[in-house]
Amino acid sequence: MTTIPHLPALRLGRNYESLDKVEVKDHRTGEVKALVSQVNGGIVKRDMARLGQARAVLKKFTVAQLIDLSAKAGDLFLNGTLPFGDQGHTQSAQQYIETLSGTSGLPHIMVKRNMAKIHYALTHLSEVLNGLSRGLGMGIIDRGFGEQFGTKLSFFPTCQALGLVMPSNSPAVNSLWLPAIALKTPVVIKPGKEEPWTPYRLIQAFIAAGVPAEAFGFYPTDHDGAATILNSCGRALIFGDKNTMAQYANNPAIQLHGPGWSKFVIGDDCIENWRDYLDVIAGAISDNGGRSCINASAVVVPKYAAEIADALAQKLGPVAPTRPDDENARLSGFANVKMADFIDAQIEEGLKTPGATDATAKYRNGPRKVVFEGGTYMRPTIVLCDSFAHPLANKEFLCPYASVVTCPQNEMLQKIGYTLACSAITKDPAFIEQLEAFPEIDRLNIGPVSTMKISWDQPHEGNMFEFLWKRRSIERAW
After folding, report:
1. pLDDT band with cut points at 50, 70 and 90 for residue 1
2. Is residue 57 assigned to a domain?
3. What is the pLDDT of residues 183-195, one digit of tens each?
4. How confident is the model at residue 226 (pLDDT cuts 50, 70, 90)?
5. CB 122 within 8 A of CB 77
6. Whether residues 291 and 227 fall in one domain
7. Going by C-beta distance under 8 Å and a sequence separation of 6 or more, which residues neighbour residue 40?
8. Do 216 and 276 lie in a common domain?
9. What is the 3-state secondary structure (H, E, C) of the chain?
């Protein structure tokens, strides 16, 4: 009889089995894929007092050595068979794909794409750190001081460790913390409830590559434990909804990763050719199952909104659930069915306000929320809105969703609000200059470029080097 794998907490290098365990189940069949030990805030607090020891084990390495070990970890993560829990189980890359797909709802092809992103980030850290540090020689980090660009430079670490409160929606979000190890910073991770697999596999890959286990904390825990991680490490990342973000908005030590409200805007000069951009816009809405903060959730146009909404609806409306191993799968299931219920209800409630139409309804030929082979899915939704005043005009959901909104070009920047990734389809120099100067856009693409296109050396959500290391003035007499 095959035993169910057990994932222990990792208390800064030491496996820990708790009496309190949770079952992580397949979202379609209910099969238990693993038992995961849970730890309370008291245990987390005790371990946070030992973060200096965790940092010391990384200080023995140079940044260049840690970059090399990170590249080995990337290859192991992508292709290797790694320890899976504390009972002798191992996990191949294919088993990881199947397990993650089963519990998160992501089809296999999307898991593979996320794996490729993580692998790329780990195997190109030299380029990534060069971009993040603006060309700083990493030997200065090793020594703490030096000269470059004709000036004296000194940097010191801002924290003992990087705390992470991770989500369950997309494995590639783990790529955001990967530079921390090369930057000699331990990581303390609270994994997402339905997605402990990716951070656990990454930790095992790093350890197998030669990074000391003491540099890693893996703490499945409750809200109290998560708060302890956020407040004890010195620097932390948290992922969550708008309400979660509001709690930490005034804390510069905590980097927030919430809704992106990413958008396409089309200028007056390019709107007549809107048909040429449909494929890139539809892809930006639906890639990765619509689960990313850089998925486009609004398309802002000066005219032809009805025609554009209908054309996008024709492309996306017929998209339906498929088996998870289908290479052409485009939808993700919901591990938490209540989330699908909530999203569906939110859209329906919004449609009751005059000024919006579900353009995809006539192309779906069925309900938005559907059950397929035991899994719950949300089919794509394109909503035509007559203005930004409508409650559905600037919404974001964990599924392929976007509004198409009419707005004069000279009012667009007043109306769009915060936008994580903006793809502006325009050649108008004056409009481009306005976009470049607009402070509410974090990442700007000019031309028909997907909002999903990212450059690891140009962060779209915070600069990890500047978050973990701070420059100071220095003078040395000897």
Report:
1. very low
2. yes
3. 999 999 999 988 9
4. very high
5. yes
6. no
7. 20, 221, 222, 224, 225
8. no
9. CCCCCEECEEECCEEECCCCEEEEECCCCCCEEEEEECECHHHHHHHHCCHHHHHHHHHCCCHHHHHHHHHHHHHHHHHCCEECCCCCCEECHHHHHHHHHHHHCCCHHHHHHHHHHHHHHHHCHHHHHHHHCCCCCCHHHHHCEEEECCEEEEEEECCCEEEEECCCCCHHHHHHHCHHHHCCCCEEEECECCECHHHHHHHHHHHHHCCCHHHEEECCECHHHHHHHHHHCEEEEEECCHHHHHHCCCCCCEEEECCCCEEEEECCCCHHHHHHHHHHHHHHHHHHHHCCCCCEEEEEECCCHHHHHHHHHHHHCCCCCCCCCCCCCCCCECCCHHHHHHHHHHHHHHHCCCCEEECCHHHHCCCCEEEECCEEEECCEEEEECCCCCCCCCCCCCCCEEEEEECCHHHHHHHCCCEEEEEEECCCHHHHHHHHHCCCEEEEEECCCCCCCCECCECCCCCHHHHHEEECCCCCCC
Give yes or no: residues 248 and 304 share one domain. no
| Whether residues 298 and 198 fall in one domain | no
| Mean pLDDT for all residues in the chain | 93
| Greatest C-alpha distance within the chain | 77
| The token pair that represents 444 in the structure block | 């700007």
Query: Same domain for 249 and 284?
Result: no
Q: Answer whether 223's CB lies under 8 Å from 149's CB.
A: no
CATH of the domain at 122: 3.40.605.10
Mean predicted confidence (pLDDT) in 395-411: 96
Choose one of 238, 258, 278: the last residue of a domain.
258
> Are 417 and 351 a contacting pair, CB within 8 Å?
no
Q: What is d(CA 163, CA 170) in angstroms, rounded to the nearest whole number? A: 18
pLDDT confidence of 457, banded at 50, 70, 90?
Answer: low
Residue 195 · residue 88 · CB < 8 Å: no
Distance CA 432, CA 198 (A): 39
Number of domains present in the structure of the chain: 2
Q: Which two tokens stand for residue 296?
A: 């486009």
Closest CA to 35 of 63, 56, 4: 4
Q: Please report whether residue 465 resides in a domain.
A: no
pTM: 0.93
For 329, the domain range is 262-446
Q: Tell me: the pLDDT tens digits for 130-145?
A: 988 888 999 999 998 8
